[in-house]
Design brief:
single chain, about 260 residues, alpha+beta, Glutaredoxin, five-stranded antiparallel beta sheet, 4 helices, 15 strands, globular, DUF1223, DUF1223 domain-containing protein, Thioredoxin-like_sf
Length: about 260
């Protein structure tokens, strides 16, 4: 992964770091901009949660809209109730805990949808989710945040900026989330051999790429390290997110996504 901050680094500095300057767009280039995205729905779910499938289906229907990014984080605290959720990760549970503390939600619950990092919605009511998207639009508009993703050859480039960032406050962070379009799993079913379960947009991995202040940053990563070679369609979402003094995730300022 190559990281650079613009415009402070010139071409000579980039060459020294082993990062090439961005040239003209190739014919195969794909791109996505946060200007075309109005919301992010983060669903916290589990394959062992009986109430979760309808919520996942509702979120997936909303996620079919090109201006919404839907991410399903499978948590691990339901694993006691049945076979281990193969999509679960303790880091997903930690992310939900961080939201719960910042939003003062109390105990962890599933299914739960966090809208734009600002508001939690329980249940699969699509009308409630649509209302939450309207009531909790991308936050911190004064930061003027923007994210642009583009591919060039085998490289993914992500550029993020927050020109209105306050130097006296923690800088927003750039988070890259890798997810599958859909995953089918056969869940063991006593006496019946198994039940097929379909999960939409399950998160495979997420990582913080860096902090974003008044200068734009650009990150370059090989696509081969991000996409899964298992025949499933893979999505990559870049989230520009505010953080508090305690480093808890705050409002999502901007987001963009590409699917392969």
């Amino acid at each position: 992964m190559a990281f650079r901050r613009s415009p402070a680094l010139g071409v000579a500095c980039l060459a020294a770091l082993g990062v090439s300057a961005v040239g003209p767009a190739s014919a195969q280039e794909r791109s996505a901009s946060s200007r075309d995205v109005r919301g992010v729905l983060e669903l916290f779910t589990s394959q062992n949660c009986g109430d979760c499938p309808p919520v996942g289906a509702a979120a997936a229907r909303l996620g079919a809209a090109p201006d919404l990014v839907v991410l399903a984080y499978h948590v691990d605290y339901w694993d006691y109730a049945g076979p281990k959720d193969q999509l679960a990760d303790r880091r997903n549970t930690d992310r939900q805990k961080s939201y719960a503390k910042r939003l003062k939600l109390g105990a962890l619950v599933t299914p739960q949808v966090v809208v734009n990092g600002q508001k939690a919605v329980d249940g699969g009511d699509e009308a409630a989710l649509a209302k939450a998207l309207k009531d909790a639009p991308f936050g911190c508009a004064k930061l003027g945040g923007e994210v642009v993703m583009r591919t060039q050859g085998d490289t993914l480039r992500i550029e993020a900026r927050a020109p209105g960032a306050d130097p006296a406050r923690p800088a927003p962070i750039l988070v890259l989330v890798t997810y599958a379009e859909r995953v089918e799993t056969t869940m063991p079913d006593e006496g019946n051999g198994g039940t097929r379960r379909v999960d939409h947009h399950p998160v495979r991995d997420w990582r913080v790429l860096g902090s974003v202040d008044r200068d734009a940053i650009e990150v370059e990563m090989p696509l081969g390290l991000l996409t899964e070679n298992d025949g499933e369609r893979t999505g990559l979402a870049a989230l520009l997110q505010a953080v508090g003094a305690d480093n808890k995730p705050g409002p999502i300022i901007a987001a963009a996504a590409l699917e392969f």
